[in-house]
């Protein structure tokens, strides 16, 4: 555009100059936010933040280093039978977690073997526990593998939502129960309210599965209205919504399967809590069960952010603090119990998960001359022989592994 063609006052053309300025400000703000997110996703930034957080925790605990010596003495005197029981409880927790996946996916017509689901659960847990922001990597890995099993994106997303809701409801039930038994100021109707919400969610999921055409038509109407508001083509993204009913109609979650998924989801939490309880008894402490439950749930909530790998630091501090405060344990024994518990639930599971991941996803790509890159391993392309990574039989492509 030449100088003659450039209007001196753009706002005089259509009266929208101020709106364009507002849109420009929004775009600049969005751009700054994207740059910040990319900066925070940088591995070096995360590593420095993790190191800084650990240094801060170490500095804050500088006056309590004697607790580590006392805790180490308690660990050396730990009851090995309780440690074995804790390991068994954690193994059962991982099996229960995989069973939730099996029940929900099979109700959607996806044929998945229990061994495959358990292998994926252990592998995803290893990724989740090892890196800052690992849960996002873990969720993406689970989503990708479920697509390889034959699940559609809608079914895989449905699984993520429902399994998360079941997990959250189970934690809420255990938390309300623990606070109730501790005589905390929590009305028993709170637990009933959680159960009602869970039932409504299950009913809603079943209704959507039985009336997918109505859901699809409703989504199309909302999308059309949104496009009109944005002054975009009314049929924009309609092609992504169409076919939604065909995918979701495959879901059949009868009450019996729903009840079993709820039970198994609760068993996942209960067995993890049993693992912590056995670790506490292993170092010679006898706290209240309700106090241990509250300590476990508090640590889980703190670990949701997972600034450090596996919540290392914040989770341990929360566990020790709650075991001392809510479970009435001594500081040294609380620290010893947490160390034993984290050795099993964090370090032990991560090691096993990486071994399972290497066996199931990477072993076919191992070559004496070419080794897969970390990016190829993380994306799963190494096992499939994509992007130049050697696959099974040395070919460029390979069939998805079936266990």
Automatic annotation (TrEMBL):
Entry annotated with the keyword RNA-binding: no
Membrane topology: Multi-pass membrane protein
Main location: membrane
Regions that span the bilayer: 43-61, 81-105, 155-182, 189-209, 269-299, 311-329, 335-362
Subcellular location: Cell membrane
Keyword list, A-Z: Cell membrane, Membrane, Transmembrane, Transmembrane helix
Cellular component GO terms, alphabetical: plasma membrane
Keyword check for Transmembrane helix: yes
Signal peptide per UniProt: none
Region (Disordered): 1-23, 381-403
InterPro entries per UniProt: L-PG_synthase/AglD
Name of the featured protein: TIGR00374 family protein
Annotated organism of origin: Corynebacterium variabile
